[in-house]
Amino acid sequence: MSDSLALLLVPALPLAAFLLIFLVGRVYFPKFSGILGTVIMLATTVISMATAYKYFFVTGKVDGVYQHLIAFKFTWLPFSENVSIDMGAIMDPISMVMICVVTFISLMVHIYSLGYMKGEDRFAIYYSYLGLFTFSMLGLVLSTNIFQIYIFWELVGVSSFLLIGYYFDKPSAVAASKKAFIVTRFADAGFLIGILVLSYYTGTLDFETMIARLTVPGSELTAITTAGFLGVSALTWGLMLVFMGGAGKSAMFPLHIWLPDAMEGPTPVSALIHAATMVVAGVYLVARLFPIFAISCPVGLDVVAYIGVFSSMFAAIIACTQTDIKRVLAYSTMSQIGYMMFALGVAGYGGENGLGFTASFFHLFTHAMFKALLFLGAGAVIHYVHSNDMRDMGGLRKHMPVTHIAFLIACLAIAGVPGFAGFFSKEEILTAAHNSNPIIYWCAIATAALTAFYMFRLYFNIFWNKEYHAHHSDSHHGDDHHHGEAPWSMKAPLIILALLSIATGYIPFGNFVSSDGQALHSEFHLTSAILPVSLAIGAIIVAMLFYRKKNAVPDKIAGTIKGVYTGALHKFYIDELYLFVTKKLIFGIGGTIAAWFDKNVVDGVVNFSATVGENFSDTLKKMQNGKVQSYAMYFFTGVLGFVLLFVFLWDKF
Amino acid sequence: MSASTIIFYILAAITLGGAILAVTSPKIFRSAIYLLFSLIGIAGLYFWLNFEFIAAVQVVVYVGGIVVLIIFSIFLTQGSGSDMKDPVKIRSLFAGLAALCGYCLTYYVIQRTEFHPQLEQGPAEISVARIGEQMLSTTEHGYLLPFEVVSMLLLSAMIGCIVIAIKTRSIK
Amino acid sequence: MSDIGLGHFLIVSTMLFFIGIYGFMTRRNMITMLMSVELILNACNINFIAFNKFLFPNQLDGVFFTLFVIAIAAAEAAVAIAIIINLYRNRKSIDAEDADMMRL
Questions:
Q1: What is the extent of the structural domain holding B19?
Q2: Contact C54/B117, CB-based, under 8 Å?
Q3: Minimal CA separation from C26 to chain B, in Å
Q4: Taking CB atoms and an 8 Å limit, are C35 and B5 in contact across chains?
């Protein structure tokens, strides 16, 4: 199979699944839709893996450098000779890694959902949305063109909106989906302006051309760096606005507020969209434009780094206090994405400097595995307990052994315990940070310790702490009252992902993904690993002491640092701040003016035109009275008019 | 003023007078009879022009066919003696005005136009045989095709009439 | 027939035509409207014949047109009367003012 056909099929198959299930399946074979979607997803995964394999080991490498290949491309909307919106598929290391991650995690979630979503009313719709999301995400990562990425960006946003609001009879889910949509929409407005700024100065929308024009000195680069606004060059503005879009999707501070609420969606969706794939779109976007950031706009890269590290730490602190297990995971996701962001931010272009770039993608890859595993495991727990709150759990390790082991592996991985995948990627990030910026490095170390702490707080609270007893235990049902741990369709993805959460760490990632395409052999320094690992293990031990058995220590500690604790529990009041700004300031003051204008000017014009139209149509209506003689009269008058015209006026023409 | 001129005026007067009475008479049956006079006047005009065949067709088809048909339908649909509803006043005024304007306009055009008759004289008599031959010939001036088309039209009209007028169960 | 020319015939036919128009617009009874249409058609026939006689005396085209018009007029009258009878059957009225269902 040729590359172009394969890469055409990769997004096309999920799209076909979406259309098939949405248009036909939900009416005619709702039960079968899940299997159908899963089979199509399996095919997609196989094709994308094969394509990636072929790219990495056969065709992609020329003289030791991975090439940017365009698998196919056609012009969709030509604006002028040079500027056009194309649809295409790009083959380079990061897009290949991404399609593997997206299709694989999507496949896992498809399989998992067969068990998790079984018996839902809108089972088929759910699978069709999953197909739509996978299609959009694949389209996004394969984009050759900044406008194409924007289109798929929005599509991803829409499918995320649909899936968060899947339980649309639950008001909180509706509110959450609205919130996610509005916040990301707001960020996307910035993205669009950024696109316009960049394309205005470069005269192109194509990534490669744009990168070429903005990294090599030339007229475009001079123009964009000399033009400025508020003392900042147009290039920085453009890149920052684009990054704003990325930050919105990737839930970076201060646009993160939608992500915790997005957990209202079904748990597999959280695993797919809000942990492994969509939220890393921002990282992907920055990586896509990385040469521009790194070569022409180091200031922008610094901003990325600081926002990344701040979000990372901020989210980790909040995660320590939350009790909803999915929210803990959501903040953990935010924290880990912050890791990827600042890893990009501290990287430079080419050679050893590019370590951060590689590390960022390495972490993205491993994180996708263990975070998806965490979410799916949490889903299994929720499935079993019927509650999101960790205070309702505890002592589950005997009830759900498979989930327990898988969850433990994921926790070890994310905590960066040696031997697990997260360790390798996190070490690389820390090394990169260490090499460039001490502030970021120390923040990252602290965050790593916090991560280990809150993850094991979660783990011990779910699986140890107290003995589990079902809340509604009917005596005559006994143990059979519960439906067992989980069906195999749910266990299998957990096992696969658990194995991968260990195995993916051993991939020599630098050989494949690097900032300039050349293989990067990252040295593994044992000495630099000692500090973070010992901190992580220390944090795990602290968590164990606190939460393994039910005791009063955590509450006491919380009491002593009351201010910080309450602040973190309330997510540092960011939501309230937003509410104040939007409700009181924007809607309160701006709204009154807008309402007056709307009522008196806009409505006035509309009403006036409506009245005029109504009167006119009344007159016309009377002429159209259905009486043949009136019609004859109009006809005859018309004929007379024509006769007059032709007889008297025709000569003059 | 020769006799033929006088005859023309008399025929024209019959035609127009009958027509005016036909469109204004309040009684529908009388209206049909006035129409009959008007059509006979037209047939007379054809005779006056030496188109005996056309005149005969006019009498046979209009007088013998259409007017009889109209009278039948009058009997079918209503009594003959009662007055019809008066026309809408404003509309009759407007229609009269429009007709007058149209007439003036056409009159003006007729007066303005110069007609150039072909000088060469054809056969004085228009024989039925010649009409028949040309009607069915396929040469340059033959009218076979329109003839066939009209015959098809008549056939379909006949079928159509039967289909429309056939008694079906009434709507509701 | 010396002093009677084409113009006379045209004036007669024009008058007849506009009498027909007037009748078509003012009459409310459909049968009388149909009669007005017959008058209009006859006005045209007079024109055809007159043009044939005075302008192209050696040809027969006007005659043929007249014949066709008469045939079509007969067909038209038959169809119109069939429609009128059908309408009368359904609505018990052949007043054109009442037949305004087309508006709906």
A1: 1-83
A2: yes
A3: 5
A4: no
Tokens of A435: 């090499």
Assess if residue C83 is contained within a domain.
yes
Residue pLDDT, tens place only, A282-307:
888 888 888 888 888 888 888 888 88
CA atoms within 13 A on the CB side of A299: 10
For the ranges B34-48, C46-60, C81-95, the lowest mean pLDDT is seen at C81-95
Contact assignment for B91 to A629 by CB distance below 8 Å: yes
Q: List A465's β-bridge partners, or say none.
A: A549
d(CA A100, CA A350): 24
| 3-state class (DSSP) for residue A65 | strand
Do B78 and B103 sit in the same domain of this protein? no
Cβ neighbours of A628 in C, within 8 Å: 96, 99, 102
Q: Are residues B21 and B62 in the same domain?
A: yes
Q: What per-residue confidence (pLDDT) applies to B38? A: 93
How distant is the Cα of A627 from the closest Cα of chain C, in angstroms? 5
Q: Does B101 touch chain A (CB under 8 A)?
A: yes
Compute CA distances A494 → A570, A589, B150, whole Å: 32, 51, 85
Q: Is C102 inside any structural domain?
A: no
Provide CB contacts within 8 A for A37, sequence distance 6+. A17, A21, A110, A127, A128, A130, A131
Please report whether residue C101 resides in a domain: no
Task: State how far the Cα of A135 lies from the Cα of A18, in Å rounded to an integer.
Answer: 8
Give the number of A-C residue pairs with CB atoms closer than 8 Å: 27
A461/A463 Cα distance (integer angstroms): 6
Q: Does residue C12 lie in a domain region?
A: yes
* Chain A residue whose CA is closest to C104: A626
Question: Each residue of B147-172: pLDDT tens digit?
Answer: 999 999 999 998 988 888 777 665 54
8 Å CB contact between B51 and C49 = yes
Q: How far is CA A90 from CA A71, A98, A427, B109, in A?
A: 6, 12, 30, 77
Q: Say yes or no: B94 contacts chain A, CB-CB below 8 A.
A: yes
Instruction: Name the residue with tokens 């065949």.
Output: B53
Residues B65 and B110 in one domain: no
Q: What is the mean pLDDT of chain A?
A: 81
Contact list, C104 vs chain A (CB under 8 Å): 626
Say yes or no: B109 contacts chain A, CB-CB below 8 A: yes
In angstroms, the CA A497 to CA A378 distance is 14
Do B110 and B159 fall within a single domain?
no
Interface test with B, best of A633, A642, A645, A650 (most B CBs within 10 A): A633
User: Which CA distances in Å does B98 have to A557, A640, A644, A645, B87?
Assistant: 102, 8, 13, 16, 16
Number of C-beta neighbours around residue A485 at 10 A: 18
3-state SS of B16-63 is HHHHHHHHHCCEHHHHHHHHHHHHHHHHHHHHHCCCHHHHHHHHHHHH
* CA distance linking residue A22 with residue A132, whole number of Å: 10
Close Cβ partners of A519 (under 8 Å, ≥ 6 residues apart): A64, A510, A511, A512
Write the pLDDT tens digit of every residue in A141-198: 888 888 888 888 888 888 888 888 888 888 888 888 888 888 888 888 888 888 888 8
HSE, side-chain direction, 13 A CA sphere, residue A300: 26
Q: Are residues B151 and B171 in the same domain?
A: yes
**B40: number of Cβ within 10 Å:** 20
Closest CA to C39 of A340, A594, B34: B34
Q: Is the peptide bond before A254 cis (omega within 30 degrees of 0)?
A: yes
- The reported pLDDT for the residue numbered A426 is 84
Centre a 10 Å sphere on the Cβ of residue A127 and count the other Cβ atoms it contains. Answer: 31
B63 lies in the same domain as B17: yes
Q: What is the pTM of this model?
A: 0.63
Q: How many CB pairs under 8 A join A and B?
A: 19
- CA–CA separation, C13 and A473 (whole Å): 105
- Provide the ipTM: 0.89
